[in-house]
Design brief:
The protein has 131 residues and is of the alpha+beta class. It contains five helices and four strands. The model has no long low-confidence stretch (mean pLDDT 92). This is DUF393 domain-containing protein. It comes from Halomonas pelophila.
Length: 131
Amino acid sequence: MTRRATLSARAPVTLFHDGHCPLCQREVAWLARHPRRERVRLVDIQAADFDAARLGSSFAAMMGRLHVRDEDGRWYVGMDASRALYAVLGYRRLVWLSTLPGIGGVMDAGYRWFARRRLRLGRWLKRRGKG
């Protein structure tokens, strides 16, 4: 799948998020207030009844990178999950910019850096009173 394929994500999308991550909690709270929130279903992968195996994945894989599944059953992972999410919320121009050569690669690398550190960053921000 190419980065631009994220522009064709069909709503509603299902966002699989880590309900224990302070930064993820902030994003989910923002999504819950978003004017187009009906385009996004939220699933907390930390919930007791969540089973990644039913989705053909593992808990570890879903904890490692963001996962979004669209209405057609297509999966978007990592930065592409963010792109698909924001495309269905109406931010298509920003998503398109994030796919441009050079910019897309930098954003993908930035996402990988962030994903590996998101829990530590969230705890640090919470301690500083900004989380």
